[in-house]
Amino acid sequence: MSDVKNILLVGVGGQGTILASKILSEGLVEAGYDVKMSEIHGMSQRGGNVSTQIRYGKKVYSPIVGKGEADVIVAFEKMEALRWIEYLRDGGKMVINDFEIPSVPILMGQAEYPTEILEELSAKASVLAVKAAEIAQSLGNSKAMNIVLLGALVRAMNVEGVDWKKAVASSVKESFIELNLKAFDAGYNL
Fold it and tell me: What is the pTM of this model?
């Protein structure tokens, strides 16, 4: 059996998915793991989806996570969680931002945002729903929701021997360090 762990981070362009992935990868490297990361930006600057695949373990040969292989999926938006559920392995975990970003068809009135997404996903997997945008806003800036989700993910992963606060601080602008450290703690302590 492989010791490699598979994580997917999925969201919409502008949510900070890639920054969270880079901080996570940096921390895992610091902990001594071999880490491979792959990111896909599908029209991300126009509100399209963004996905990052991270694999870590003693020796990792590929950054690609196949269907049914993800140990954890972190969804920065609820509909993205629904789109990627087929990548979660049996017994896997989902950390989901309880947050909605309507797609273009929804904004144009051609479709409706799906209801009861969290309930549907909870029937299929272990789900931690996080109101990351609200938590980040209460700290001073809703854009820190990515770091709130990162904190929740790190707690769910239970990886020891990493100075996560150092990884966060070294990855954000100096003027945002304090906010992001508070956001990380808020997510970690959920």
Answer: 0.92
